[in-house]
Protein: Protein amalgam-like
Amino acid sequence: MATQWDLAQLLLTALLILQGSWLVRSYKTTDLDYDVEYVDEEPPYFLARSQTFTVEIGQSVIIPCDVENQGTHQLVIMRIDSSGKSHLVSAGGIKLVRTQRMKIERTRLFILKARRQDAGLYSCSFPTAEEVVLQHSLDVQYPPKINSSNSPIQHVAKGASVTLSCTADGNPKPEIRWSYQGGVLPSGALSKQGESLTLEDVDRHVEGSYVCTADNGIGEPSSAVMKVVVEYPPEIITEKAIVRTGAGDQVELVCLVRGRPSPRVTWTRDGQSVNHATHATAANDAHRHTLIIRPVTEQDFGAYVCIAENSQGQKSAVVQMTGLPRQPRFNSAPAGGEVNSYTLTWETDSYYPIIAYRLVYRKAQANGSMDSNKNWVDVYRQVDVETVTANTHHVMAHTLHNLDVATDYEAVVKVKNNYGWSSDTDRFAFSTRKALAVQQSTSWNANAAPATACPNLRYTALAIVATLTAAAAALPF
Structure:
């Protein structure tokens, strides 16, 4: 329904048009009648040409409708918006819009602090003069503004794909680029142009914030941040697969767990949940999940299972708590310094004292034979109580006698404490002194002539040495 303002505009326009449609040139009257003569004026024409004006939002612009032969013709200025709808701006020099940002000065329209809605076609015309029309175009440029994007947080399952979308309004049309906050995109590029970004076969390494930035050179760029959260099954490792302890000690069993959503972690032993009401306490710190047992009793020894579970799956890891010694490790040098003997040394860790060890050794097998039961010499020794230390780290030694000269051997050892035997060491290869054997093989045997029997050979060797020494001294360096 038309408003009073619209009706007033139409009425004023009609009066202005009628007023300028003819001109009274002469007037005659008698007692009985009168005669009026009307004469048409020369048609007006515009001095300006059609133009396109481009301004940034907030700037001012002048729309010219300069005219010649206007006479009494009334100038009408109209704005035609992007939808094709016409809006009357002025008629006969009278402004017909409410805004104070538009002013009419004679035949010119002044637009102050242009806004987006001011853009469009501006028509200058004389309704009483056919085909006398001038049309200008006003382009109002404005900064970009992101008006559509994905949800700020995108949840996606590991191995799936996700597409991030972003559109923006602005004049000129903004360019949209994607970047990764704090780094590079998964492709390795710093940025990517386009309204969408697709991440395929995602894993937790592509998690983070992705930034959509729209820029058209007008004002400041516009940005939106979308966070990608990758949901994946639990990943779990243990700090120590085997924890060695003893009665009365305090021990921590630790699992390092990652997953999204954050996994729920539980501990079991022998298929039953650990009773936290006794002397076991669970503590969680971010990704580190700890089962604290204090004080340790012999009944606590065994396998503990750390179970992590979320909506994406389940994973577990085993921590063995034991009082047995750690597998020993040989630390003696492989090449021995004695002709017929060799001292083996090894180290191990045990919360309890080492009370015995078992050592087996043999000559190295020809051609790399893997016969594990052939020609082994078995040595069992109990450890003297006086040599036992309170330290949990133990270094031990055993000397083998009556070995063959310059011969390769191999050995395996294991140790025992009050809770039992450790596992065997890996095979350790060693040898008796070999340098003496080489010397003996190059010496004269007992039946050979003594060295003094060949004095000429000795003198010849000395001469050769002297000659080589003199030649070396004469070299230029």
Remarks:
- The radius of gyration is 51 Å.
